[in-house]
């Protein structure tokens, strides 16, 4: 019997179809890392320390941004802005309403290589996580963007290894989450400048955290996956809800996954999805339930090797990915997702227990944490 229960429910999402593919530059061996949607089109970070811009849908290249001097570790988009972090110790923000130039509109500099960052929803706080330094400090730096010359606070005692992921809470602007190679997930209230007072909860996943983030209608849950391809779900108060173990075991159920690309929460359908990839470049989309998975579909033909980044919007019906083959691929659906009505908080359909409830929305029957 398969270790992880998995059902096949293709009706949870409309079918994504490969629409366009941008090949790598001639004679280039550069990987494509992140590929994201911005206000001026697709932005893709590459291992030759560039950010390339493409027309949406057609993927015709339209611009190049080269600023950082070391590996770009993350790119993120906000309204009219592109943000990037790098192992050169910088987090840069460009105003996309201006011509693409080598000069960012805002710059945050540290003495440590930056692995991840995020901006609070009110744009009043930027947080970055760094590599463990020679003195065994893994720092979390906090800035006020209105005074970006120096951090307003530095937390350096919460993690003992690289801070691999930073995510700000979507509705509480001073709260943020950090994940680390030490296996810890930490939640903070940055309204407190003292690190001990700011640290709210600590969860030990037991595995090196490669990615984590909030999910749920009130962002009351946390997902975390590791570089050992394990997936866990937690509450923001450090209670573990689910431990799926190694998701590569899904191969026993006929879903070949060699690694986790990312997890993504869709607020319209109130569902958490996981994207897993194969070494041959296929992408599998799955709904993550309380104790099982539902396989929805596979995105094929876009890549021929490991997929490094995936950005997608089920409601708008598009997906974009970048991979070690240097390609950027774009998928579209025939029509946007028609999201079913969300569960009423606290409501429990028949045959439910106290921790999870069943739903038949859009054809799915996986258990969810109420009200998730």
Report on this model:
The structure is a single chain. The chain has 372 residues and is mainly β. It has a single domain, classed as Methylamine Dehydrogenase, Chain H (7 Propeller), CATH 2.130.10. Helix content is 1%, strand content 47%. It has one helix and 31 strands. The chain has one helix spanning 195-198, and strands at residues 6-8, 16-22, 32-38, 41-46, 50-54, 61-65, 72-78, 81-86, 90-95, 106-109, 114-119, 126-130, 140-143, 153-155, 163-168, 175-180, 184-189, 199-204, 209-215, 221-226, 230-235, 240-246, 259-266, 271-277, 283-288, 293-299, 307-313, 318-323, 328-333, 356-357, 368-369. The longest helix has 4 residues, at 195-198.
How would a textbook summarize the main sheet? Answer: 5 strands, mixed
Unreliable sequence segments: 336-365
How many strand elements? Answer: 31
- The mean pLDDT is 89
The third-level CATH topology is Methylamine Dehydrogenase, Chain H
The CATH homologous superfamily is named: YVTN repeat-like/Quinoprotein amine dehydrogenase
Which strand order spans the largest sheet, edge to edge or round the barrel?
1-26-25-24-23
Helix content: under 10%
Overall SS class: mainly beta
CATH architecture, by name, is 7 Propeller
> Total domains, how many?
1
> Distance N terminus to C terminus?
27 Å
Radius of gyration: 20 Å
Beta-strand portion reads over 45%
Cα shape = globular
Tally of alpha and pi helices: 1
Which CATH top level class fits? Mainly Beta
